[in-house]
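Worked example

This section walks through a single chain of length 276. The input is the sequence exactly as stored; nothing has been trimmed or padded.
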Amino acid sequence: MTLEQSITQLYQSPKRDYNAEDKAIFISFVEALNNGQIRACEKTHDIWQVNAWIKMGILLGFRMGSLTEYPISATKSFFEKDTFPEKRFQLSDEVRIVPGGSSVRTGAYLAKGVTIMPPAYINIGAWVDAGTMVDSHALVGSCAQIGKRVHLSAGAMIGGVLEPIGSRPVIIEDEAFIGGNTGIYEGIIIGQKAVIASGTVINGSTPIYDSVHGAFLPRDSGGSFTVPSRAVVVPGSRKLKQNPDFGVYCPIIIKYRDAKTDSALTLEDELRNIID
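Given that input, the structure is written out below as tokens.
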């Protein structure tokens, strides 16, 4: 039986008394997440496909675990299910974690060359690819998928998703630049090299206007929105149809990346733990 079949069977089982064999299956599942052998969502033939069984495994961990105390020091502890300890790193992982209060939950995959500035948090099921910078006060939510050489600026909130099971997580594709104090939620896909300006909030229920093409973005196959590759998105507003004297928030694509944008957003390898 494959790991996927075992996890699906355990998740669908009504039992709540888990034996050593059941727990061993879950441990293998978490190890596979930590090592990047499996992931919550992956691109196949240019389409992002949700692996619902990964979310089943994570939810199974909540069901299977017992609340326990994890001492941090003589006077401080945190309290969490014993199935979800903090992820432990080794020097050989080649992930740079600057001291100051960041935390990564077990079951999150961080590729070589990732840098985390404090304080930041990366949740279970997340995938953070090589050369990405996770800046201070940034959140990478459960099952969020972050590509290569992405910049998550200070205060960027990348939403997570565990339920409903089949829901697509937030996806930030390679070399996107996510500005400070932004919020990306509800299955939004940010295309390669897109730029999200500081203070922009994008979710699955707020239409995005493309001023270059003079039209709102259509909903994609996942029921949310895909910000096109190289799009530059800023916070904006639109008039209410019922009452044009009032406006509502609306993210706006003001242009697509050009040489000027590229020069302004040059990423410095010295700031990242770049692996040749």
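What to look for: The helical segments are 3-12, 20-34, 52-64, 259-264.
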